[in-house]
Amino acid sequence: MQTDHAILEQVAQAKTSLERADELIRQYQPFIKAQASRALGRLCTEQDDAFSIGMIAFHEAIRGYSRVRGSFLQYAALVIRSRVRDEQRRERRHAPHARLDQPGPEEGQTLGERLADPEDPMDAAEGRLATQKEIRELTETMAGFGIALSDVAENCPRQQRTLEACKQAVRYAREHPELLEELLRTKKLPLARLCEGSGAARKTLERHRKYITALLLIHTNGYEIIRGHICQMLAPQGGERPA
């Protein structure tokens, strides 16, 4: 494990690059697990929802860190332990009534059930609690852009060629953080620059604006728990997973 001083440059890069942020989170998973264990008062495993919460908190620490806060690792440790304990308190208050009402793509199945492991009842229960907060936050964030989860499902590409064009636009935006910042600031998809940079047809991106916006919001707000699952859920049936 590197010293805190040695990772300051990595943290600076992770602030503007989602790929670098994900890489740093993977690199420091043992540290994250150790801090989550301290908050739990027991050993935290990768199956614990506290571990996922810890990874989200580590990403939050990357975004919120500045040198005036002192040691990055000490700051990250405080954020991780605080978020895990906050979640423990929320679970104690709301666990008897916790449920996810947002329907998933399969009849009679909620989104929380879709995200949980169907082969492990204990994992399914923990998964619903662990993802409830992120799903609510994602739904609220998209609502600020005039988008609902049902809108995105209806707006996703149905043809492979169209899907590829949308993926190219998403990849280009992720490689150019200024476009993501513009999206968050203006709440409008920067279509002209996306078309020019990715080579996708404007008509295609306009037609699937809600789908692309949702994917970018998922990638820009640190939704590590649900990012891959949501992207898979939004993919066309029989198609490959989106960017």
Explain what the structure shows.
By secondary structure, the chain is mostly helical. Helix content is 68%, strand content 0%. It has helices at 8-16, 18-27, 29-40, 49-64, 72-94, 111-115, 121-143, 149-155, 160-175, 177-186, 191-198, 202-207, 209-220, 227-234. α9 packs across α13. The protein is globular and about 55 Å long. The relative contact order is 0.10.
What are the SSEs and their pairings?
Layout: H1 8-16, H2 18-27, H3 29-40, H4 49-64, H5 72-94, H6 111-115, H7 121-143, H8 149-155, H9 160-175, H10 177-186, H11 191-198, H12 202-207, H13 209-220, H14 227-234
Helix pairs in contact: 1-2, 3-4, 3-5, 4-5, 4-7, 8-13, 9-11, 9-13, 13-14
Return the string of H and E elements. HHHHHHHHHHHHHH
Helicity level? 55-70%
Mean pLDDT: 75
Radius of gyration: 19 Å
Question: What's a quick, concise take on this entry?
Answer:
With about 240 residues, the chain is mainly α.
List its traits:
243 residues; mainly alpha; 14 helices; 0% strand; globular; disordered C terminus
